[in-house]
Amino acid sequence: MKLSIIGPPGSGKGSQAELFEKELKLKHISVGDLLREESKKNTALGKTIKKILNKGDLVPSKIVWQITKKEISSVRDNFILDGFSRELIEAKVLDKHIGLDGVIFLHISDNEILRRLSNRWSCSCGMTYNLLNYKPRKDKLCDNCGRKLYKREDDRPDVIKKRIKVYKKETIPVVDYYKKNNLLIKVNGVKKPKEVFKEILHKLNKKLYKVSK
Ligand SMILES: [Zn+2]
Fold it and tell me: Ligand 1 centre from 126 Cα, in Å?
C-alpha cells in the first residue's frame, strides 16, 4: 500500500503516520523530518534548508523531491508519505513515478492550528505531543522512547501564521488535485489521534474496497 497524508501544519499528520507504522507496518516517511535532518548537516544544502525552514517558507520542490525520492526508492512499497506533496508540482512529479493508493487529508481550522502548534512538543523519534490534549505520560519526556521533548524552531507564533498562509496558497491546490483524481480521503483532524486513526481506516477500507470492485 502506498499512501500519503497531507493537511495544515499541526493537523497531526506525524502522529497518524506513526500509528500507520505501528499498526499496519507501513514505513513512515516524514518529509519534514528528512529536511530537518538535512538542515542539521554542515553542508551548503543543509544551511540553505535551515534558513528556509526557520522563516516558515517552503523548501523548493526540486530539493524536496531529491531527498524524498531517495527515501521512497529505498522502501519501494508499503509506506506512508507525511508532508508530501506540499505543492501541486510535487504531486504531479510523484504521480509520474509512483501511483498512490490513497491520499489522506486531515482537516482542522486556523484557530485550531495556532492553538495546537503553540502547545506542540516534538521528539526526535518522530512522535509529537500536545500539552492541550495529547500530553506525554511523564512531563516533557517521550512515551515512545523516553527522550526529552523539544520545541521546534518553526512552531513560534509569528512563523506559524506565515506557515498557515503558505499552506493555503500552495497546498490547497494539491487537495483539489487529489479530489479530482478520486484519491482524496478527507478526515476531520480535531478529535483525539486514536479516534482520527479509526476514522481514517474506516474510510480507507471503504475506498479501497470500492476501487477493487
Ligand atoms: Zn520519542
Answer: 6
- Clarify whether 152 is annotated catalytic: yes
- CA 209 to the chain's CA centroid: 25
Whether pLDDT at 194 is above 50? yes
Catalytic residue among 13, 36, 50, 116: 13
**Each residue's pLDDT tens digit, 142-155:** 999 999 999 888 88
Domain 2-205 fold is Rossmann fold (3.40.50)
Cα angle, residue 57 at apex, residues 183 and 62 outer, rounded to 5° = 60
Q: What are the pLDDT digits (tens) for 119-169? A: 989 998 888 898 987 899 999 999 999 999 998 888 888 888 988 999 999
The question of whether 86 is a catalytic residue gets the answer: yes
Q: Which of 55, 140, 152, 198 is catalytic?
A: 152
CA distance 83 to 29: 9
Among the listed residues 186, 176, 181, 146, the one whose alpha carbon sits nearest the alpha carbon of residue 136: 146
| Distance between CA atoms of residues 112 and 11, nearest Å | 8
The answer to whether 93 and 69 have CB atoms below 8 angstroms apart is: no
